[in-house]
Amino acid sequence: MVSPVPSRPVPARPPSYRVLVPVLLLALLLAQVLLEPRRAAAAPPAPGLLAPVVGPLGAPGGTLAVAVAGLVPVAPGLTGPGATGGRLVLRTADNGPAAARPLPTASLVKLFLAEDLLHRARAGTVTLGERDRRLLQDMISASNDPAASQFWDRFGGPQMVRDVAARYGLRDTAPPDDPSQWGETTTTARDLARFLGTLRQVADPEDAATLLSWMSATTPVAADGFDQRFGVFGTAPPATAVKQGWMCCLSGQRHLHSVGVVGNRVVVLLSEVPRSVSYGRARAALDGAAAALLSPPPG
Q1: Fewer C-beta neighbours within 10 Å, C or N terminus of the chain?
Q2: What does the pLDDT read at residue 234?
Q3: Is 3 domain-assigned?
Q4: Measuring CA to CA, how many Å separate 203 from each of 20, 86, 168, 220, 221?
Q5: Distance from C-alpha of 38 to C-alpha of 60, rounded to nearest angstrom
Q6: Model pLDDT for residues 171-192, shown as the tens digit of each residue
Q7: Beta-lactamase class A catalytic domain: which residues (predicted)?
Q8: Helix, strand or coil for residue 67?
Q9: 269 phi and psi, to 5 degrees?
Q10: pLDDT over 50 (residue 41)
Q11: pLDDT attached to residue 9
Q12: Could you tell me which residues come within 8 angstroms of residue 237 by beta carbon, excluding any fewer than 6 positions away?
């Protein structure tokens, strides 16, 4: 992030038991959703699937928001919210109120900026040169902050966020109160799971493939020197489509986020902890949660 400036991570400590138990339950639920598509499609959506994960590191006021999603076939004769072309439905699971709580995106807003610019370029309302496309890729893969600032200023960043939210039905995603601070855009784990889960249905297929390819080329170290190998990126197989985010210290809070598309699964991990909690401890919590969610399904 440009402002606030992220601090360097420190050696991680083991994630707490309070994080892993709810996340393991969430992993089992997701496996059931994806492995039993007919049953899942017949079942109504189930909000609040788990109790909120609060205090993920034993720190008062800390939150780990978790959401997972996958597109599964709709059973014959069934229709419902999220169905695409009558064949697929987005199934999601999350940890309840924590996943519905708006948090600052930090660098995850760069996904919205890239999607919107690709969409507008295809519609012919903006023109992107080769340099623009290289900067877009660097903004995603290396989390380049100056590139994000440039696109935000040139193309009306707050409206870009609103447009993406409208196209994808992101009810709790909004531009920042201070329009100059793109990292203070707010979203929820649920909204990010919906955005990534429906990207290949809402966006032009070529644009979706381009964005996912940039995410798949994420660099181990970001443009600002921050180690990006945590959470989904630190756990999933090589070349997984991921995006990382970090920021300190808005309202005295530290934020560390990780999202990814792993096969037919979307995994979203957003964390907020007091500034007194190090990046190392936050990284350990995200690493443990990602490992639980990405473990091979039972059976």
Answers
A1: C
A2: 94
A3: no
A4: 34, 18, 9, 27, 29
A5: 41
A6: 999 999 999 999 999 999 999 9
A7: 134-263
A8: strand
A9: -130, 115
A10: no
A11: 37
A12: 262
Q: What percent of the chain clears pLDDT 90, i.e. is strictly above it?
A: 70
Neighbours of 298 (CB within 10 A): 9
Angle value at C-alpha 172, between 166 and 177, nearest 5 degrees: 95
Give a yes or no: residue 1 inside a domain: no
Contact (CB, 8 A) for 6 and 246: yes
Q: How far apart are CA 59 and CA 91, in angstroms?
A: 32
* Domain membership of residue 128 as a residue range: 17-293
Say what the pLDDT of residue 86 is.
Answer: 53
pLDDT higher for 85 or 143?
143
CA atoms within 13 A on the CB side of 168: 31
The dihedral over CA atoms of 151, 155, 158, 162, expressed in degrees to the nearest 10, equals -110
Q: Is 87 in a helix, a strand, or coil? A: coil
215 touches 261 (CB < 8 A): yes
Q: Are strands 63-73 and 265-274 parallel, antiparallel or unpaired?
A: antiparallel
User: Considering the domain boundaries, does residue 137 fall inside one?
Assistant: yes
Asked if residue 220 lies in contact with residue 229, where contact means CB atoms within 8 angstroms, the answer is yes
CATH of the domain at 191: 3.40.710.10
Helix ranges, the chain (H):
17-35, 37-42, 109-123, 130-141, 145-155, 157-168, 189-202, 205-216, 231-235, 279-293
Q: How many CB atoms lie within 10 A of CB 153?
A: 12
- In the chain, the number of structural domains is 1
| Within-domain flag for 142 | yes
Q: Please tell me whether the overall predicted TM-score, pTM, comes out greater than 0.85 for this model.
A: no
Q: 254 phi and psi, to 5 degrees?
A: -105, 135
CA distance linking residue 205 with residue 224, whole number of Å: 31
245 burial type by CB count under 10 A (0-12 exposed, 13-18 middle, 19+ buried): buried
